[in-house]
Design goal:
alpha+beta; 3-stranded antiparallel β-sheet; globular
C-alpha cells in the first residue's frame, strides 16, 4: 500500500491528479471485497487526497483534497 501511495503522491505533485486502474487497485482491494469504494475513500482521506472519480472495475482518480490543510 505504501508503494501505491507514493506513486499517487508523485502523480498528484507532477500532474495534479493520479489515475489508478483496476489492475493496480485489485492488488490492494480485491474486486469481491466488501465496501471497496468506501475503503478507497478512506485511503485517500488518510493521505490528504480525495477520490475524485471512481468507476468500479475500471479506474479511481485521486487529487489533492482542497479542504485538507
Amino acid at each position: 500500500m505504501h508503494i501505491l501511495a507514493a506513486r499517487i503522491e508523485t502523480d498528484i505533485v507532477t500532474q495534479g491528479f493520479s489515475a489508478v486502474y483496476d489492475s493496480e487497485l485489485c492488488r490492494v482491494w480485491p474486486m469481491n471485497g466488501c465496501e471497496r469504494e468506501k475503503k478507497i475513500i478512506l485511503f485517500a482521506e488518510e493521505h490528504g487526497w480525495r477520490l475524485r472519480n471512481y468507476k468500479d472495475g475500471f479506474v479511481a482518480i485521486f487529487d489533492k483534497d482542497p479542504s485538507a490543510v
